[in-house]
């Protein structure tokens, strides 16, 4: 029995197979999900031939020091922004020397939101070595911390599928 639902397991399996077909290694850079995307991918037996590593960069300091997100980008846009999500994905791709990466940064709640950036707002970015990058701004709403985090995992896997198919 998996700790993840059937949809997440199925999509994780598909993403791993897509990457295998390209002979790509994959990395994650996660903030609000705290490693759940990497957990979903490594839930699949044999994933070590594709999943290289996951960076859990919860603080701005970690985003900067571990995967090279520029302090100026963090200050100008805030951690929960398209610019930071894109920089996290690019930083993970470069730091891990992999061919595909996904990054997420958001407000899972409860609390911590504002009128400008409400609870449930998540920015995701996925990029690959061919230069294709996709971004999504999701507003899941104040549906509960676990629900926001699991919805983010599903969206991240959909994006990885999109750029690895």
Multimeric state: single chain
- Please estimate the helix content: 40-55%
User: What about the largest sheet?
Assistant: 5 strands, mixed
Give a count of the beta strands, DSSP E runs of length 2 or more: 5
- Spans where pLDDT lies below 50 across 5 or more residues: none
> Overall 3D geometry?
globular
End-to-end span in angstroms?
A: 27 Å
Strand content: 15-25%
Show the helix and strand layout.
Layout: H1 6-22, E1 26-30, H2 36-42, E2 51-56, H3 60-67, H4 71-77, H5 82-96, E3 100-106, E4 121-128, E5 133-139, H6 145-164
Parallel strand pairs: 1-2, 1-3
Antiparallel strand pairs: 3-4, 4-5
Helix pairs in contact: 1-6
InterPro entries: CinA-like_C, CinA_C
Pfam families: CinA (PF02464)
Protein name: CinA family protein
Describe this structure in words.
- With 165 residues, the protein is of the alpha/beta class.
- It contains six helices and five strands; from the N terminus they run H-E-H-E-H-H-H-E-E-E-H.
- The chain has helices at residues 6-22, 36-42, 60-67, 71-77, 82-96, 145-164; strands spanning 26-30, 51-56, 100-106, 121-128, 133-139.
- It has a five-stranded mixed sheet, sandwiched between helices.
Task: Supply the key terms.
165 residues, alpha/beta, 5-stranded mixed β-sheet, 6 helices, 45% helix
Offer a quick outline of the entry:
The chain is an alpha/beta fold and 165 residues long. The chain has helices spanning 6-22, 36-42, 60-67, 71-77, 82-96, 145-164; strands at 26-30, 51-56, 100-106, 121-128, 133-139. β4 (121-128) and β5 (133-139) form a beta hairpin.
């Amino acid at each position: 029995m998996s700790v993840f639902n059937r949809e997440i397991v199925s999509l994780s399996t598909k993403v791993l197979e897509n990457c295998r077909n390209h002979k790509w290694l994959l990395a994650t850079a996660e903030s609000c999900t705290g490693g759940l995307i990497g957990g979903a991918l490594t839930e699949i037996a044999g994933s070590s031939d594709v999943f290289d590593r996951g960076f859990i960069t919860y603080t701005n300091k970690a985003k900067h020091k571990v995967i090279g997100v520029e302090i100026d980008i963090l200050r100008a846009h805030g951690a929960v922004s398209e610019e930071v999500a894109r920089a996290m994905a690019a930083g993970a791709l470069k730091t891990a020397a992999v061919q595909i990466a996904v990054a997420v940064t958001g407000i899972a709640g409860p609390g911590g939101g504002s009128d400008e950036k409400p609870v449930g707002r998540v920015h995701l970015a996925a990029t690959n070595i061919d230069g294709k990058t996709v971004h999504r701004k999701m507003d899941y709403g104040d549906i509960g911390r676990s629900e926001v985090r699991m919805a983010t995992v599903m969206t991240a896997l959909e994006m990885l599928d999109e750029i690895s198919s």
